[in-house]
Design a protein that fits this description.
elongated; 146 residues; 0% strand; mainly alpha; 7 helices; Four Helix Bundle (Hemerythrin (Met), subunit A)
């Protein structure tokens, strides 16, 4: 069952992390490489942002008569297969989920250029929130969605 309090909490996390990351879009690679605090800020906020998106999608899917996706990537492809989000968006978010695994588990092997490039995906997150909340509203599962 979709719990409105869970949806609201996850949306708040996503909005907060987007707000922290947005000012960093366009930072130069030189600035990024030289500033460990900046690296920490970008990497941690990206990790939490992507995980909150995954958790939000998994929460919505738990309400459907489907087997739960077996991976974070599959959350997004399943949402797309169900017509909840656009297929292309689902594929891009699935790649983001894979990137989140790199942030969390392969942090020693991160390539700074790829980390900064991932900031260009923030609009995909905004689109995801719009499409998912529209679905919830249309299903009568979330009365005051964005």
């Amino acid at each position: 069952m979709v719990e409105e309090s869970t949806i609201r909490r996850l949306l708040h996390v996503i909005e907060h992390r987007l707000a922290r990351l947005q000012p960093l879009v366009g930072v130069s690679i030189d600035s990024y490489v030289k500033d460990q605090d900046l690296q920490d800020k970008v990497e941690r906020n990206l990790e939490v942002l992507i995980q909150a998106c995954t958790d939000l999608g998994a929460h919505v899917l738990a309400d459907l008569p489907l087997p739960m996706p077996e991976s974070n990537r599959a959350v997004f492809t399943t949402l797309a297969a169900q017509g909840i989000i656009d297929r292309g968006l689902g594929e891009r978010l699935a790649r983001m989920a894979g990137f989140r695994n790199l942030l969390a588990h392969e942090y020693a092997d991160l390539i700074p250029e790829k980390v900064l490039a991932s900031l260009r995906s923030l609009d995909d997150v905004r689109t995801y929130v719009q499409q998912l909340t529209r679905y919830l509203r249309d299903q009568g599962l979330f009365a005051n969605a964005h």
